[in-house]
Design a protein that fits this description.
three-stranded antiparallel β-sheet; 10 strands
C-alpha cells in the first residue's frame, strides 16, 4: 500500500481524503521549501510562463471587492489586481517575500494593499475578518491540515474562492525518469484529492486546467538539475549518472534561444473555484 497502513475500505464513500492527503504529504521528505531563500529569484521564475495571465483572466472581481491573497509571495499575482478591487490584504509566512512585496508597493505608491506576515494555517475569521474574494495561488499544496484550512477560507469569503494546485503533469519528466530506473517518485497529493475533500465538505467547485503554454528552458544541464524536482538526495552515484544521461537524451537545444528544453517540462496547474453559499 502507498503508506504501508493496513486499512481496508469497503465503501468508497468512507474514504477520508483529508487523512490520505496528510499522510501523502508526511511521506514526502522534501515537501518544505525555504521561501526566504527562494524569494529573490521567485519573481523571475514567475514570469517564465503564462500562469499569471491565465489565472487573472479567470478571476471574478468587482471594483468594490476586498481581496485576501493567501501565500502572496512577492506579489506576482495580487500586485496586478490593485486597480481592479477596493483593497487587498496580502499574507505570506516568508518575511523576505513580504519585504520584497512592500518594496514594490512603496515604489509604485500603491495605497490599497496591506501585507501581513503570517502562516496560512493561522488565518481564520476571528483574526482576519470577512473578505469578498479569497485567492490561494499555488500556496496550499504543502498544507497538512487542508480540510480545516479550507473551512476557514470558506468562512472568510463573502463571494468567491479561487485556489490553484499542482496539475497531473507538473513534474512529468522527473516522474518519467524515476519510472525508467524503477524507483518510486514521491510527489504532492494530486488535485483529485482536493476535489474529493471539497465534495466531502459540501463544496462543489468549478475545475479548470490552466493553459500555461510555455515549456521551461535552461542554459545548461546544471541548471536543469538545480531547478528541477529530481530529489537528488534520494539518488545514489550510479542513478545520478543515469539522470545525466536521461537529460542528454530527452532535452533538445532550442535553435532560437540556444537553451535546453523538453516539451513536456512545463508547469501544470489546476484551478478550483466556487461561489460561496450565502
Amino acid at each position: 500500500m502507498i503508506f504501508n497502513i493496513p486499512i481496508t475500505i469497503d465503501d468508497p464513500e468512507e474514504i477520508d481524503w483529508a487523512y490520505f492527503w496528510e499522510k501523502k504529504l508526511e511521506a514526502k521528505e522534501d515537501r518544505e521549501k525555504d521561501w526566504d531563500k527562494a524569494a529573490p529569484n521567485f519573481g523571475k521564475s514567475a514570469i517564465r510562463d503564462n500562469y499569471d495571465k491565465e489565472l487573472i483572466s479567470k478571476l471574478i472581481l468587482d471594483s468594490e471587492d476586498t481581496l485576501l491573497d493567501l501565500g502572496c509571495g512577492e506579489g506576482s499575482i495580487s500586485l496586478q489586481l490593485y486597480d481592479k478591487v477596493k483593497s487587498i490584504t496580502a499574507i505570506d509566512s516568508s518575511s523576505k517575500m513580504i519585504e520584497l512585496y512592500d518594496k514594490k508597493i512603496k515604489k509604485e505608491e500603491i495605497k490599497n494593499i496591506k501585507t501581513i506576515k503570517a502562516d496560512i494555517t493561522d488565518i481564520n475569521i476571528d483574526n482576519i475578518g470577512h473578505h469578498d474574494i479569497i485567492l490561494a495561488s499555488r500556496s496550499l499544496n504543502g498544507i497538512l491540515n487542508i480540510q480545516e484550512t479550507i473551512a476557514n477560507i470558506n468562512e472568510i469569503a463573502n463571494k468567491y474562492v479561487f485556489i490553484t494546485v499542482f496539475g497531473p503533469n507538473n513534474w512529468k519528466v522527473e516522474k518519467d525518469f524515476y519510472e525508467s530506473i524503477d524507483k518510486e517518485y514521491s510527489e504532492f497529493p494530486s488535485h483529485r484529492y482536493l476535489f474529493n475533500i471539497l465534495v466531502d465538505m459540501g463544496i462543489y467547485p468549478n475545475i479548470e486546467n490552466l493553459d500555461i503554454g510555455k515549456h521551461r528552458e535552461y542554459k545548461d544541464i546544471d541548471e536543469i538539475l538545480e531547478r528541477g524536482k529530481w530529489r537528488l538526495f534520494s539518488l545514489n552515484d550510479d542513478e545520478k549518472e543515469e539522470l545525466k544521461n536521461y537529460i542528454n537524451e530527452t532535452y533538445t537545444i532550442n535553435p532560437d534561444t540556444g537553451n535546453l528544453y523538453n516539451k513536456y517540462d512545463k508547469a501544470d496547474w489546476v484551478l478550483f473555484w466556487w461561489k460561496v453559499e450565502e
